[in-house]
C-alpha cells in the first residue's frame, strides 16, 4: 500500500506528499461511504446517528422494502460522556464500534432506539431511567422514561450488543440496563455489573419480544420485585453459555423472571424460556425462586447448574401456571430439565429446596439430573416439591442425594390434587424394610425394580440416596390421585422420622 503511494507521489517533496496523501485518504473514505464515521465526542456522535437516518444512508420508510437501507458503521475513537440520550431514528441502522466508553451523567439514559442499533466493543455506563410509570412486572408502559437505564428499545427498533459491558445502569421501573418493548434484543459476550431496577429485570426487561443471550455474565445485578437480572414477559427468551452470579430480587426470580402467559391483547400464545449450558451461582430472591421464577409458559433447561441459590420458597426454581383473569386465558407452565444440577440450594421458609412447582401441565425431570445437598428448612421436598401437575410427570435417570427437609419428601415429594391416593403398591417386590407394606413411595428405605404400571407419574432409572425428612418419606413421597410407576429405581440410606403417611 505505502509502496504504491510512494511510486505515485514519488517525485514530490515530502511535506507536499504527506498532505496530498492525507487529502487522498479522506476523499477515498468520504467517497466510499458518507454514512460511516469516526466520532470522538457527543456532538459528533449525535450528528453521525442523525445522518444514518437520512436519505443518503437509509431509504425512506415508504420506499421499503424495494429500497433497502444500509448500516452506518460509526467508530467511537474516544470515551464519550453524554449530556442527553442519543435517539436513533426509526429509519436508521447504526453500528457503534469501540473500544471505548460511552457514559451518562447518572440522571438520563444513553440510547433510545426507534431504529436498528448495534453496539460492540463498548463500555456503557452511568445511565438512569428516572421517570415514573410502568404497569406490570416488566413495565408494559414505558412512555414515561422509567425503563431501560442505558438503552430503551422501542417497538420499531432492535438492539444487538457484542463484546461489551454495562455498568451502573439503573431504571426506576424495569430493565436496569436495557428495556425492550415489542422488539428484539441479541447479546453476545456482554457483561452486566451493578445494574438495578426498581421493579423488574435488574439488567434487562423485555415485554412482548424476543431476547437471545449468549456467553454473557450478570454479576450482582438486582431488582426490587422480579428478575434480579432478566425479566422476560410475554416474550421468548433464550440464554446460553452464560453466568448469573449473586444477582437478587426483592420478590421472585433472583436471576430470571419469566411470565410466559398472554395478556394485553397479545393473545394466549405460550412463550418459552430456554436455558442452556448456563450457571446460576449464589442468586437469591426474598420470596419465590432463588434463581428462576416462572408463571405460565414453557421452560426448558439443558446443562444448567444451580448452585447455592436461595429463596423462601423454591430455592432455585419456583414455577406455576399463570392464572386467568378478565379477558386473559390462563397459560399452563411446562418444565423440562435435562442434564441439570441443583446443589446446596435452600428454601428457607417453604417447600422445594431446589425446585418448587405449585401448578404445571407437564413436568420432565431428567435424564441426567442431579439434586445434591439441597434443603427445605421448614417445608417439604428437600430436592423438589411438585404439586398439581395436570398432565404428566416423568423423573428419568435422576439422582437425589443428601437432600433434606423439615416435613415430607427428603428427596422428592409429589402431591396431586385428585380425590384419593392411588399409589399402586400391590406389585411391589418384597423388601427388606419392614415398612414396605406402607405405600411404597413412603417407605423409609427400599429398592424397587421393574415395577411398571401405566401411570401419571413415572420414576425411571433414578437413585435416591442419603436423603432425610424430619417427618415422612425420606427419599420419595407421593400423595393424591396419581398412579405411579417405579422402574429400576433405587433407594439407599434415606431416612424419615416416621414412615407412615398421615391419612
Ligand atoms: C428518518 O426519520 C427522521 C425522523 O425520525 C426524519 O426526519 C427523516 O426525514 C427520515 N428520513 C428518511 C429518509 O425517511
Ligand atoms: C419512580 O416511580 C414511582 C412510581 O412509578 C414514583 O413514585 C417515583 O417518584 C419515581 N422515582 C423517581 C426518582 O422519579
Ligand atoms: C468479550 O468482550 C470483552 C470486552 O467486554 C473482550 O475483552 C473479550 O475479548 C471478549 N471475548 C471474546 C471471546 O470475544
Ligand atoms: C414466541 O414463540 C411463540 C411460539 O413459537 C410464537 O407464537 C410467538 O409469536 C413468539 N413471539 C412472541 C413475542 O410471543
Ligand atoms: C391446579 O392448577 C390448575 C391450573 O393448572 C388450577 O386451575 C387449579 O386451580 C389448581 N388447583 C389447585 C388446588 O391449586
Ligand atoms: C436399605 O436398603 C439397602 C438396599 O436394599 C440395604 O442394604 C440397607 O440395609 C437398607 N437399610 C435399612 C436401614 O433398612
Ligand atoms: C425434627 O422435628 C423435631 C420435632 O418436631 C424437632 O424437634 C427437630 O428440631 C427437627 N429437626 C430438624 C433438623 O428440623
UniProtKB/TrEMBL annotation:
Coiled-coil stretches noted in the UniProt entry, renumbered to this chain = none
Instruction: Say yes or no: keyword Phosphoprotein present.
Output: no
InterPro entries per UniProt: Pectin_lyas_fold, Pectin_lyase_fold/virulence
Q: Which UniProt keywords apply?
A: Signal
Give the residue range of the signal peptide.
1-37
Query: What's the protein called, per UniProt?
Result: Right handed beta helix domain-containing protein
Amino acid at each position: 500500500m505505502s509502496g504504491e503511494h510512494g511510486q505515485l507521489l514519488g517525485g514530490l517533496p515530502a511535506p507536499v506528499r504527506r498532505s496530498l496523501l492525507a487529502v487522498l485518504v479522506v476523499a477515498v473514505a468520504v467517497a466510499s461511504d458518507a454514512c460511516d464515521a469516526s466520532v470522538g465526542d457527543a456532538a459528533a456522535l449525535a450528528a453521525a446517528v442523525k445522518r444514518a437516518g437520512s436519505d443518503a444512508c437509509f431509504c425512506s420508510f415508504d420506499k421499503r422494502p424495494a429500497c433497502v437501507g444500509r448500516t452506518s458503521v460509526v467508530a467511537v475513537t474516544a470515551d464519550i460522556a453524554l449530556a442527553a440520550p442519543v435517539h436513533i431514528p426509526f429509519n436508521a441502522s447504526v453500528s457503534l464500534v469501540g473500544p471505548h466508553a460511552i457514559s451518562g451523567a447518572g440522571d438520563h439514559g444513553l440510547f433510545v432506539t426507534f431504529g436498528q442499533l448495534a453496539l460492540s466493543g463498548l463500555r456503557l455506563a452511568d445511565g438512569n431511567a428516572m421517570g415514573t410509570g410502568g404497569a406490570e412486572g416488566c413495565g408494559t408502559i414505558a412512555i414515561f422514561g422509567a425503563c431501560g437505564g442505558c438503552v430503551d428499545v422501542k417497538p420499531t427498533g432492535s438492539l444487538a450488543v457484542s463484546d461489551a459491558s454495562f455498568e451502573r445502569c439503573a431504571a426506576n421501573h424495569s430493565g436496569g440496563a436495557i428495556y425492550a418493548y415489542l422488539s428484539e434484543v441479541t447479546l453476545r459476550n456482554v457483561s452486566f455489573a451493578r445494574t438495578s431496577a426498581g421493579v423488574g429485570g435488574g439488567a434487562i426487561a423485555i415485554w412482548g419480544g424476543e431476547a437471545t443471550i449468549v456467553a454473557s455474565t450478570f454479576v450482582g445485578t438486582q431488582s426490587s420485585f422480579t428478575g434480579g437480572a432478566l425479566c422476560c414477559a410475554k416474550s421468548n427468551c433464550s440464554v446460553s453459555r452464560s453466568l448469573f452470579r449473586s444477582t437478587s430480587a426483592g420478590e421472585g426470580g433472583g436471576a430470571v423472571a419469566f411470565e410466559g402467559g398472554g395478556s394485553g391483547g397479545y393473545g394466549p400464545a405460550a412463550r418459552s424460556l430456554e436455558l442452556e449450558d448456563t450457571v446460576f451461582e449464589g442468586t437469591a430472591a426474598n420470596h419465590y425462586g432463588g434463581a428462576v421464577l416462572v408463571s405460565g409458559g414453557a421452560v426448558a433447561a439443558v446443562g444448567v447448574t444451580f448452585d447455592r441459590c436461595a429463596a423462601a420458597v423454591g430455592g432455585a426454581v419456583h414455577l406455576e401456571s399463570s392464572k386467568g383473569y378478565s379477558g386473559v386465558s390462563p397459560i399452563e407452565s411446562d418444565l423440562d430439565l435435562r442434564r441439570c444440577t441443583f446443589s446446596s440450594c435452600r428454601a428457607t421458609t417453604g417447600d422445594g429446596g431446589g425446585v418448587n412447582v405449585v401448578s404445571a401441565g407437564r413436568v420432565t425431570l431428567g435424564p441426567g439430573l442431579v439434586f445434591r445437598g439441597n434443603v427445605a428448612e421448614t417445608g417439604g421436598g428437600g430436592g423438589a416439591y411438585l404439586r398439581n401437575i395436570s398432565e404428566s410427570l416423568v423423573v428419568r435417570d435422576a439422582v437425589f442425594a443428601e437432600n433434606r427437609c423439615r416435613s415430607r419428601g427428603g428427596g422428592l415429594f409429589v402431591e396431586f390434587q385428585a380425590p384419593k391416593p392411588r399409589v399402586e403398591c400391590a406389585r411391589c417386590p418384597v423388601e427388606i424394610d419392614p415398612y414396605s407394606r406402607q405405600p411404597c413411595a413412603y417407605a423409609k428405605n427400599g429398592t424397587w425394580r421393574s415395577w411398571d404400571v401405566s401411570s401419571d407419574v413415572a420414576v425411571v432409572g433414578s437413585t435416591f440416596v442419603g436423603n432425610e425428612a424430619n417427618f415422612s418419606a425420606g427419599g420419595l413421597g407421593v400423595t393424591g390421585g396419581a398412579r405411579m410407576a417405579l422402574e429400576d429405581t433405587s433407594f439407599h440410606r434415606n431416612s424419615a422420622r416416621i414412615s407412615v403417611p398421615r391419612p
